[in-house]
Amino acid sequence: MPEKELADRTLPVGLIGLGSMGSFVAREIMKGEIPGIRLIAAADIRPPSSDLLEELQSHSIPLVQSFEGLGNYPLRLVIECANQKVVAECADFFLSQGVDLLIMSVGALVQGNLFPRLAARAEEKGCRIFLPSGAIGAVDALQAAKLRGLDEVILTTRKNPRSLGKIEGVSLEGLKEAKVVYDGPASEAVVKFPQNVNVAATLSLAGLGPEKTRVRVVADPGVDQNIHEIHARGAFGSFEIRLANWPNPDNPKTSLLSCLSVVSLLKRIQGSVQIGG
Ligand SMILES: NC(=O)c1ccc[n+]([C@@H]2O[C@H](COP(=O)([O-])OP(=O)(O)OC[C@H]3O[C@@H](n4cnc5c(N)ncnc54)[C@H](O)[C@@H]3O)[C@@H](O)[C@H]2O)c1
User: Fold this and answer.
1) Is the pLDDT reported for residue 77 higher than 60?
2) 171: which of 101, 108, 160, 180 lies 20 to 30 Å off by Cα?
3) CATH architecture of the domain with residue range 3-131+256-270
4) How far apart are CA 185 and CA 190, in angstroms?
5) Which of 15, 16, 21 is the best mutation target for the ligand 1 pocket, counting ligand atoms within 8 Å of the beta carbon and taking the most?
6) Rounded CA gap, 210 and 110, in Å?
7) pLDDT digit string (tens) for 29-68?
8) How far is CA 91 from the centre of its chain?
9) Which residues make beta-bridge pairs with 213?
10) Residue nearest to ligand 1 atom 19, measured at CA
11) Is 228 a catalytic residue?
12) Does the beta carbon of 19 lie inside 6 Å of ligand 1?
């Protein structure tokens, strides 16, 4: 392909948040791992590590302190890797300018009417909102199955008690066997278990919604991976999928699969061949 055509297909992107997830995404783009994606500018309210700052500088990528500062650059896609509050604050700002948005803090979208409001704004402005599969899979199968009706979707998340953190009203001290610490709708799970918020939210948005998606959280001292099991049943039949995730060795706060799912989504956005979905 002639060089000019290639340059025209390059997608200029901005990044909000250079923490665990954002720094991974920034580095993958800077390493050239995502053909057709160019990081134009990044925003964070805190200074990044000196290593990352050096890498950004060596690629002439400016760093601004607020997402509004990204508005000065000719971006076509903004990747949000900050937090739920930032999604609520920045989404209208970018969508109104016709800029696509890739949202990592998906939990923001199952609270209040933010999701339908942003979906309507994207429709009106002719731009797109991307939500990566993150730490789970089968989101494509679930959306296809939904077209003929789903009867039930159940997410069972199994984690070592130390990865679950403090749970109001539940003591996990000295736990010897697996214990179900929550069984209820995703809408409540996302409030009680902020660490699981994105998985439950993505599944809800793809399937039956936060009220009808059932979430079970199991504290299990016998596991050292974060395990997500999804069961879905409907007119299509049924499926079960189990993901046993390791943390990203470079960013232990996030699972490796979540990090890779963003890279994979960016590749699909720019790719000529689309597999799955
Ligand atoms: N969808 C998924 O599967 C998935 C997976 C992992 C993380 N996440 C979500 O992605 C988000 C980022 O995760 P993380 O682990 O990188 O968090 P992190 O705390 O490591 O990084 C967040 C970064 O955002 C910055 N930030 C905060 N407010 C900001 C603002 N107003 N403007 C610009 N920058 C701001 C912080 O300074 C920080 O550097 C979280 O909401 C997390 O829940 C989603």
Assistant:
1) yes
2) 108
3) 3-Layer(aba) Sandwich (3.40)
4) 9
5) 21
6) 7
7) 999 999 999 999 999 999 999 999 999 999 999 999 999 9
8) 15
9) 153
10) 19
11) yes
12) yes
